[in-house]
Amino acid sequence: MYVELKNINKNFGDFQASKDVSFGIEKGRLVALLGPSGSGKTTILRMIAGLEKPTSGDIIIDGRRVNDLSPSDRGIGFVFQSYALFRYMTVYDNVAFGLEILKTPKNQIRERVNELLALTDLKGLEDRYPNQLSGGQRQRVAFARALAPNPSLLLLDEPFAAIDAKVRQELRSWLREMIYKVGITSIFVTHDQDEAVEVADQIIVTNKGQIEQIGTPTEIYKTPQTPFVSQFIGQGTVIEDYYRLRGFEKGNYKGAIIRPEFVEAFKNDNDRFADVVGISEKGTITDILFRGNSLEVRLDVEGVQLVTHRSLERRPIEIGEVMNVIIYRVYAFDDERAYLLENEELKKKDVNNVHLESYLYSNEGYFVV
């Protein structure tokens, strides 16, 4: 592993910000530290950078224990949430700053800065000051400045937090592409799960100072291992009495998470749908929200409140309309673990491996169900 944290604990007085944190990151990976505010993710990042010292445990970078090394001796580039650009320096001078501190020869500085300005699409802006740049451009300057001294590890603290939504979306793809071009091991902190899933190779989910789960975006999303991850990742509805829903039995669980993609609602009672109508139950539409490329539909199913998404290509629906509802699966949880439960009645019908929406379309076509 290129970066390793072994049994890290961090106390601020009586408050324990990190509790026995251990993980490893392979060289060249782009990793997200994901969690809600106060989960300990930024503390972990700052300890790796040397801006905080762990109370106990070891931090190892490229085989070297760095606990007692200063930030400048760790070979790390850091991009702050607020950019931390020097207001009275030009773009060129901001990017060159770290190289100046290292007393790099002028011709090498010029060559390196010009290389980074081209890489970050800032060519032609070198004489501008930060207040003459957009938020996205300032973020790129911060990125270029962090890369200038050729660090072995790049750390980014909420890199998109200060940028508006449209630019943030563009910068996600840009950042991922740039990091792969440079080939640098990178760790970024975020509380935005969409950001983590879209950008990272690997996600480390933090909660209350501890590591909840480590895995690829697909693994974290599809196979949450703990109650916290099952509720934090995705758009889930927490249901205590999920066993009231058809196809599920009561087990030794405290409740279940039902995501919108686990729910299908349709309205058609003719013979073509006998197989699926027979295992559905009735739900009343309580609200419909337009989400741009789909509708978010909220349903009351025998007192259980559910959410599903509906394509705009399907027939119009109205609040108060009664629909047939099927739940494919749920994430049940106890105090320690999350478990995927499949709808047993769907399994008996042998239609659980085919998305119900595709089944319905193949029988009736669009604008019907």
What distance lies between the first and last C-alpha atoms, to the nearest angstrom? Answer: 52 Å
Please summarize the sheet with the most strands: 6 strands, mixed
Low-confidence stretches: 363-368
Count of runs of 4 or more consecutive helical residues = 11
State the strand order across the main sheet: 6-7-8-3-9-10
Structural class: alpha+beta
How many extended strands? 19
Give structural notes.
The protein has a 6-stranded mixed beta sheet, with helices on both faces. The chain has a 5-stranded antiparallel beta sheet with strand order 13-17-14-15-16, with no helix packed on it. Strands 2-1-4-5 form a 4-stranded antiparallel beta sheet, with helices on one face. α2 runs parallel beside α4. The chain has 11 helices and 19 strands. It starts with a strand and ends in a 5-residue tail after the last helix. By secondary structure, the protein is α+β, with helices and mostly antiparallel strands. The longest helix is centred in the middle third of the chain and has 18 residues.
What's the topology here?
Blueprint: E1 3-12, E2 15-25, E3 30-34, H1 41-49, E4 56-61, E5 64-65, E6 76-79, H2 91-101, H3 106-119, H4 135-147, E7 153-157, H5 165-182, E8 185-190, H6 193-199, E9 202-207, E10 210-215, H7 217-222, H8 227-232, E11 237-239, E12 255-258, E13 263-266, H9 274-277, E14 281-290, E15 294-301, E16 304-311, E17 322-327, E18 329-333, E19 338-342, H10 344-349, H11 356-364
Parallel strand pairs: 3-8, 3-9, 6-7, 7-8
Antiparallel strand pairs: 1-2, 1-4, 4-5, 9-10, 11-12, 12-18, 13-17, 14-15, 14-17, 15-16, 18-19
Helix pairs in contact: 2-3, 2-4, 3-4
